[in-house]
Amino acid sequence: MSARPLVEYDAVDKSFGETQVLRSVDLQVEDGEVVVVVGPSGSGKSTLLRCANRLEEVQGGELRVAGDPVTGPDADVNRIRRRVGMVFQSFNLFPHMTAIENVAVGPERVLGCAREDAEQRAYDLLDRVGVADQATSHPEELSGGQQQRVAIARALAMDPQVMLFDEVTSALDPELVGEVLDVMRDLARDGMTMLVVTHEMGFAREVGDRIVLMSDGRIVEQAAPEPFFESPSTRRGQQFLSRLL
């Protein structure tokens, strides 16, 4: 693990108009750690992730990735977004591009890679996530699970230091969820730093190094998976788990 956390939230506040969705959030994610964020809808989970690559601006506190500021006038947004890969609930693939073109476009246009090199890396990543045989297919020709795996490959193509996953299986048919979670398990085994919002509690328990429970814009409990699921230390954690059961 690194001397300092890879991702640092320090008293982060975020509001949409008069609605405050993050309230003085403190969170640290170590290099190589898988942190799974759980909680009821509207608790601020997705906003927490979106702030980490500055898709949302914060109103208070500080946020850093690898020691570099995400917030404030000194933040280099392009540098941050190269370091922080994000995969969304919706696949957000370019419909006019094939799978391999979707994955290669970032390295080619943003990182300045030669097209041949970008496409070779894209093919290798499609192979890694199990869809190399669909490299020349367009998104409309792919299942939801295949599209989401292409989206993961696209994020990995920028060689990020941390990956953010925002409820990436919630739009999938139940039989397709497993194939996406398998890719995420492989990334965790390979040591990828991951901040994951999910409703898949089995995955959270199996893969997470730490579970973070959010409620009303605050982190109300965080613990290793076993103590969190077996004996949550807060009343809010007990309520959350009892409703799941």
**Could you tell me the mean pLDDT?**
94
Q: How far from one another are the termini? A: 35 Å
User: Count the helices. How many?
Assistant: 9
Strand proportion, as a percent range, falls in 15-25%
Based on secondary structure, the structural category is alpha/beta
- Report the principal-axis shape: globular
SSE series: EEEHEEHEHHHEHEHEEHH
Q: Major beta sheet, specifics? A: 6 strands, mixed
Task: Count the E strands.
Answer: 10
Low-confidence stretches: none
Which strand order do you get reading across the main beta sheet?
A: 6-7-8-3-9-10
Helix content: 25-40%
Overall radius of gyration: 18 Å
Description:
The longest helix is centred in the C-terminal third of the chain and has 16 residues, at 174-189. A six-stranded mixed β-sheet has the order 6-7-8-3-9-10, sandwiched between helices. A four-stranded antiparallel β-sheet has the order 2-1-4-5, with helices on one face. 38% of the residues lie in helices and 24% in strands. Strand 4 and strand 5 form a beta hairpin. The chain is an alpha/beta fold.
List keywords for this structure.
alpha/beta; 6-stranded mixed beta sheet
Question: How does the SSE layout of this entry go?
Answer:
Elements lengths: L6 E10 L2 E11 L4 E5 L6 H8 L7 E6 L2 E2 L7 H7 E4 L11 H11 L5 H14 L15 H13 L5 E5 L7 H16 L3 E5 L3 H7 L2 E6 L2 E6 L1 H6 L4 H10 L1
Parallel strand pairs: 3-8, 3-9, 6-7, 7-8
Antiparallel strand pairs: 1-2, 1-4, 4-5, 9-10
Short account of what is shown:
This protein has 245 residues and is α/β, with parallel strands linked by helices. It contains nine helices and ten strands. The protein has helices at residues 45-52, 77-83, 99-109, 115-128, 144-156, 174-189, 201-207, 225-230, 235-244; strands at 7-16, 19-29, 34-38, 60-65, 68-69, 84-87, 162-166, 193-197, 210-215, 218-223.
